[in-house]
Amino acid sequence: NACQNFKNLPTIYIEIRKPFSIMTKISFILLTSLCLAACGDNSAPPAAASTVAAPRKPLCEIDDNSIGGIPLGTTLNEVRQLFPKAVITPTQDADGAILNSIKINDKVEVFASTEEDKDDSPISYLETLSAACQTPEGVRPEMLVNDVIKKYGVVEQVMLSELEARQTVEFAAQPPEFSFRIDDTGIFDEKDKTYPQISTAYQDNARIISISVIDLPPEETTASAAQ
């Protein structure tokens, strides 16, 4: 092409000798330089492609109003519309409370409680034990409590409730709508038989086994935000 021919001009010029005058040669060189500048130099290697990958979106997200794309206030009938392939199974916890297992896929299962135990009643409680689910800060079930501290601050309390002898942990900077259940690794006074028992001690291997999202009354949400 024309640009390739111009790039070959310096080689041609080497063969130029008399009778061309010095001015003619200078003009020839200037013309060649201008043509090369206009055509550009395509011989430079292409810039290396960026190797920085965009952060992967988690399979299941937990925020202060939803788990896995299921918002609080949604009915089970609406969940069926949102997730036509989800398997919804009624179940109970150890205390006999009615829950609904919502299996979105083979890695994500969410438990939901409705206000009146009906399919058209709003969901007021969500919980998951699935490690594929995580908060915006990356906190998930099966995570060490000592690692969660790096995200939500120090442990303010570990509570042992009478209901199923559940143990939950509360962090200084966690969202108030979140509740974190741990794997019976809190340390309590064995002589104290009153409930709930409150402590700040736990074993080094303590792990989160589930994360819940609770529909708090407006006054509690406001009070937590003010603290």
- Choose one word for the global shape: globular
Strand content: 25-35%
Order of helices and strands: HHHEEEHEEEEEHEEEEEH
Radius of gyration: 34 Å
Kindly state the percentage of residues in helix: 10-25%
Structural class: alpha+beta
Distance between the termini: 73 Å
Taking all residues together, what is the mean pLDDT?
Answer: 82
Order of strands, widest sheet: 4-5-6-7-13-11-10-9-12
Poorly predicted residue ranges: 9-20
Biggest sheet statistics: 9 strands, antiparallel
Total strand segments: 13
* Count of helical regions: 6
Helices and strands in order, then pairings?
Elements: H1 2-7, H2 9-14, H3 22-39, E1 60-63, E2 66-67, E3 70-71, H4 76-82, E4 87-92, E5 98-105, E6 108-114, E7 123-128, E8 133-134, H5 145-152, E9 155-160, E10 167-171, E11 178-182, E12 197-199, E13 208-214, H6 218-226
Parallel strand pairs: 1-8
Antiparallel strand pairs: 1-2, 2-3, 4-5, 5-6, 6-7, 7-13, 9-10, 9-12, 10-11, 11-13
